[in-house]
Amino acid sequence: MSSTPLQNRLFLDALEGKKTERPPVWMMRQAGRYLPEYMELRKKYTFFERVKTPELACEITLQPIDIVGTDAAILFSDILVILECLSTEVELKPGFGPYIPDPIRTAEQAMNVKVRPATDELKYVYDAISTTRKALNGRVPIIGFAGGPWTNFCYLVEGQGSKTFSTAKSFLFSETKAAQHVLKVLTEQTIEYLHQQVAAGAQALQVFESWAAALGPDDFKKYALPCLLDIANEDYGVPLIMFCKDAEWSYPLFKESNVNGFGIGWGCTPEQARFHADGKTVQGNFDPSKLLSTPEQIEKEVIEMLDRFGPQNHIANLGHGILPNVPVENAKAFVNTIKNYRY
Ligand code: CP3
To answer: Phi and psi dihedrals of 175, rounded to 5?
Structure first.
């Protein structure tokens, strides 16, 4: 692995609780559809061609670093690739989103799920990480990631995106043992996957439990949290960010784990975020829709957000993924306001 020293340690310092002169900044889904350079590649290659070709994944990962200037890179990939370890095919239909032609719908399917080791199955991800780490040449750190087992389970059973994930939820509630078997397999695969990403060169990790709030707090604690704690109790040798979207109330339950930072959605105020994180680093939480206003308005609102989070242990980010119709100038205004800010 490349041992080029990092020229920009802000992100890792903030995550490790060290003092920084300003908050570091990156944006969830920073590689993607708001960038014309990405849209050019999108015309030539399918989504999974882009994800599974390390040189393309590397090029797309670097785009926001070169164009917008964030303090960290996140690998261009997708949380759903892990479903391949459960022998499940995933498609991405343009204008529709993720589509799983053969979702798990019966207890028998769930109990007999065919497991392939993440180490063998997802080699293209590790190659993309090592290629990108080399290409970054120490400019900024590279973040690896995985979906939370519950979120991946939602897609695996529902077969596509959903506002409610009611098919996945009713499967969980009616075929609980079978569902828990799948969640356990996903958890084990995710742990192996994250370790392999670090071995390939990832310098930090983030777990996206995007559908945390589809479950009420009691069911979240019963079904999703044990998987996340298994993941968070591992020592990966690099810092870990946990993002349970709209379930920030759960963060005190990670107190004894190896989590270094918590993702914060815009449904939570900076003050509430600080309370739930209890001294650990917080990451967020600008409403991505606000990037559709003007650069002047963005600057004003970003400064207000930074002031409210207060100094140290804060990574500036959006509360969820950037929207495809955000003007690049506005994304730059977001990033530059943070880069010009001083504690
Ligand atoms: O953040 C980054 O820039 C890194 C890459 C990344 C993608 N997806 C690329 C992508 C990451 C970290 C993800 C995570 C992901 N994928 C999540 C968790 C985070 C979240 O947003 O809640 C989820 C739930 C998915 C599943 C997924 N993949 C959906 C629902 C969609 C369709 C919706 C959409 O935004 O287009 C995807 C496709 C996807 N993943 C795209 C990108 C850039 C769009 C691809 C395209 O249309 O070209």
So the answer is: -120, 60
Query: What Rg, from alpha-carbon coordinates, does the chain have?
Result: 19
Domain ranges of the chain: 10-340
- Could you give the percent of the chain with pLDDT greater than 70? 99
Q: At 264, which amino acid appears?
A: I
Nearest by Cα to 185 from 129, 227, 130, 247? 227
What is the CA(219)–ligand 1 centre distance, in A? Answer: 25
Select the CATH number that applies to the domain covering 10-340 from these four: 3.20.20.210, 3.30.1330.40, 3.20.20.10, 3.90.245.10: 3.20.20.210
Predicted confidence band of residue 308 (pLDDT cuts 50, 70, 90)? very high
What is the Cα–Cα distance from 123 to 89, expressed in whole angstroms? 16
| Helix 328-340 × helix 295-309 angle, to 10° | 40
What is the residue with the minimal CA distance to atom 43 of ligand 1? Answer: 32
Active site residue 78: yes
**What integer best gives the mean pLDDT of the chain?**
97
Kindly give the number of the ligand 1 atom that is closest to the alpha carbon of 324.
Answer: 35
Q: Which long-range contacts (CB under 8 A, 24 or more apart) does 45-50 make?
A: 46/92, 47/78, 47/92, 48/90, 48/91, 48/92, 50/76
Q: Residue 262 pLDDT > 70, yes or no?
A: yes
pLDDT at 4: 85
pLDDT digits (tens, 9 = 90+) for 140-166: 999 999 999 999 999 999 999 999 999
**One-letter amino acid of 167:** T
Per residue in 234-251, pLDDT (tens digit) is 999 999 999 999 999 999
Catalytic, out of 9, 34, 38, 78: 78
For the chain, the maximum distance between any two Cα atoms, rounded to a whole number of angstroms, is: 57
